[in-house]
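Sequence design from tokenized structure. All designs in this work follow the same two-part layout: the structure record, then the generated sequence. An example of the structure record is given first.
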């Protein structure tokens, strides 16, 4: 009972105002997701640009094409139905994936609709894991599952620092619900 009385109102995680975590540790903790956000944003932006500029990838068939890759992974994918769907129009699917990666990368980097962008990145990674990299053994050699797990903290936390989301939230706080004017 005595111990409980001493800890009422105490911040046991070490981030209270009397704690040293307010200084450098607190600042670092508040910015902990920024390196992940930058890495994922740049990576997905680069992946989208790379796909759009690779003529071989955006072809229905041939060496290095998305169509050929879909044929190779069809029988080993966890959800071959997704591969079937993509095989109906491999070029269109390639453009859709590239556009999705561009949107996710830009949204993540500038922090606009950060949770939605992260959810998009997680869905792209999940789709790729269930189709393209499903047969990778051991599973930890495939990068799509790791990307999926990396997106989850951003889905949960959003982009609270150095972002358009934060700027818009601050503007709403200062001016009420009115965004413009």
């Amino acid at each position: 009972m005595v111990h409980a009385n001493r800890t009422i109102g105490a911040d046991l995680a070490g981030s209270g105002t009397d704690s040293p975590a307010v200084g450098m540790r607190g600042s670092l903790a508040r910015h902990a997701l920024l390196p992940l956000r930058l890495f994922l944003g740049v990576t997905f932006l680069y992946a989208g640009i790379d796909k759009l500029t690779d003529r071989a990838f955006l072809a229905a068939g041939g060496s290095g094409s998305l169509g050929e890759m879909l044929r190779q992974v069809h029988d080993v994918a966890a959800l071959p139905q997704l591969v079937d769907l993509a095989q109906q129009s491999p070029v269109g699917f390639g453009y859709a994936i590239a556009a999705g990666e561009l949107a996710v990368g830009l949204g993540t980097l500038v922090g606009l609709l950060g949770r939605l962008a992260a959810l998009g990145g997680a869905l792209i990674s999940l789709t790729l894991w269930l189709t393209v990299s499903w047969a990778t053994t051991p599973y930890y050699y495939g990068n799509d599952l790791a990307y999926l797990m990396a997106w989850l903290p951003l889905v949960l936390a959003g982009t609270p620092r150095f972002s358009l989301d934060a700027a818009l939230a601050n503007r709403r706080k200062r001016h009420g619900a009115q965004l413009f004017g």
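The chain has a mean pLDDT of 87. We note this feature because it recurs in several other targets discussed in the main text.
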